[in-house]
Amino acid sequence: MNAILLIVSALTVAVPAQTETRVLPTAAKLERFEFEQKHMGMPYKLLFYAADQQTANRMAEATFARIHELDLCLSDYLPDSELNRLSATSPSTSPVKVSDDLWNVLQHARTISAASGGAFDVTIGPMVLLWRRSKRQIELPSAQRIADAKAATGYAGMLLDPTKKTVQLTKPKMRLDVGGIGCGYACDEAMKVLQANGIEHALIDASGDILVSAPPPGKTGWRIGLAKLERPNDPPSRFVNLKNAALTTSGDAYQHVEIDGKRYSHIVDPRTGLGLTESCVVTVVAPRCIDADAWTKPVCVLGPEQGFPLIDKIPGAAAISMRQVDGKIVTSQSSGWQRLDVEIVKPTDQP
User: Fold this and answer.
1) Where would I find the beta strands (DSSP E) of the chain?
2) Cα–Cα distances in Å, from 164 out to 90, 96, 153, 210?
C-alpha cells in the first residue's frame, strides 16, 4: 500500500494487559501463538490463542491468504491490481463493475470524503505520486505540477452506482490510492476469518493499524501503548486497554522531509497537494479498523478543532491528538476519549 498515507509502525505498541483490577477466568487449554508475513508492503502480525499448533498454523494460513487476496485487489504498487486497472480507465467512457472488496472500500472512502469536506480523498493518487517525486528530489513541486495534480483529483469525480456496484472515473489521469483506508479494511476482513473459525482472542497489527477481538484469557483488555510525539522511540507513558475495537495512529515522527528549511509530513493535504507542515500524531479508536485507519488522516489535516466533532458523530469512536505548537506539545482529546480505559504511567512505573 501507499507509504505516503500509511501509519507509522512504531507509533503503537501492543502488549497483553498487565494492570487490570478485575481478572477474568482463564480459558482452558488455549496457547498463545504469533505469526508474521509481509503483505501490502508492510508486516502483518497475528497474535491469537488457539488449542494447538496445528490449529494455529491452519488459522494463520487462512488469514494471510485473505490478506494476500486483498493485496491483489487494493495495492497501488502492483501494476495489475484491480485498483490500478480501474485507475487506468480514467477518464472512463462507461461505468466499470468492481469486486465486492473494492466496492466496499471505495464506497466507505467516499462517505468519509463527503463527511470531511474532502480532507480525506482516495482520488489523491496524482498528488501522492507528485509528492513522492518531491521527497526523492528534496524540492517542492512547481505550481504547474500541483495544478495538474489537482485537476486530476477530487472525490466528486468518482461516480459510484450502488445498485450495480460500478465505478466511473470522470477526470483524465485520475489515480486511486487507498493506502489510507485499505489496510484497515484488510484487518477487519482478516479478523472475520479468525472469528469464523472459532478464534475468539486475537490481535492483528498491520504496521500500526491494530484490531483486537476478545481480551487474552484471564485479562480484561489488550494493552496498547501510544508513543510520544517528541520522543517516539521512548517507552510509551499512555496506554489504552481495548477489546473488540480498533486503534490506528497517523503521524510524521518517522516519515517527513525538510525542504528549504521547512518540515513537510508524509501525510498529503488534498487541498494543497503538499505534505502537512504541522508536526502531529493522531490516534483514533473505533469499532472497525476501516474507520480507525481512515479517520486519522482528515483529523491530521483538519486539526482537532474541526476533526474531533466529526469523530464524535461516529458511534463508539474516540481520538487523541498531539501537536507541536510554538515549540510545545499540545494534547487534545475528543469527548469519547474519556470513556476509554486509559492508563498513564510515569517512566519509573513502567511495567
Assistant:
1) 12-16, 31-39, 42-50, 96-97, 158-161, 166-169, 202-206, 209-212, 222-226, 238-242, 245-251, 256-259, 262-265, 280-286, 318-325, 328-333, 341-344
2) 19, 9, 24, 32
Report the distance separating Cα 12 and Cα 14, nearest Å.
7
- Crossing angle of helices 143-151 and 125-137, in 10° steps, is 160
Q: Which residues are bridge partners to 263 per DSSP? A: 258
Report how far residue 265's alpha carbon sits from residue 262's, in angstroms, rounded to the nearest whole number: 10
C-beta of residue 212 within 8 angstroms of C-beta of residue 194: no
Report the alpha-carbon distance of residue 162 to residue 209 in Å, rounded: 28
Q: Is the pTM of this model over 0.90?
A: no
- If residue 188 lies in a helix (H) or strand (E), which one and from where to where? helix 182-196
Burial class (CB in 10 A: 0-12, 13-18, 19+), 341: middle
SS (H, E, C) 6-65: CCCHHHEEEEECCCCCCCCCCCCCCEEEEEEEEECCEEEEEEEEECCHHHHHHHHHHHHH
φ, ψ of residue 207 in degrees (nearest 5): 55, 40
List, for residues 62-83, the tens digit of each pLDDT value.
999 999 999 999 999 999 999 9
pLDDT tens, position by position, 273-331: 888 877 788 999 999 999 999 999 999 999 999 999 999 999 999 999 988 877 788 89
Count of all residues that appear for the chain in the document: 351
